[in-house]
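Bench notes, afternoon.
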Amino acid sequence: MSIEQKAKDFRAEPGSTQALMGLIVKPGHMQATRTLGHALTLGDADAWASASAVFKLLLTTDERGALTASALRSMGREQAILVAEAVFRSDACKPVAPLFGFMDEAAHWADMACTAELKAYALACFNRMPPADQAAFMSHVQGRTAA
């Protein structure tokens, strides 16, 4: 099938940028692009936290690294350093409302948390569990070998 025919199937003008992009852009990349647009439009911390979770699901580590490097390079050196330091200094803060589910959000948050935060939240959560859930949790973690 010719590019012109594929473009017609996308209901776009043959040869238009929209038609060509629809033929060559990976679906995950289109979703990531829309997510970026939503985060830019909303512009709040929750939108950006959600975007991070979506990017983690849709983009490879290399793609996320390239995106990060591109954004940092768009700033002056001092501003880029301040941004990077703020990201690592703030650590994970607190978990936010789940985008896809509690386990996805917990895993995303834990990826950003420092060791002290992981220990504090793990202990606090364990202590708040009913005794039966504590026993089930202990059985689960004791059945695994430590990393």
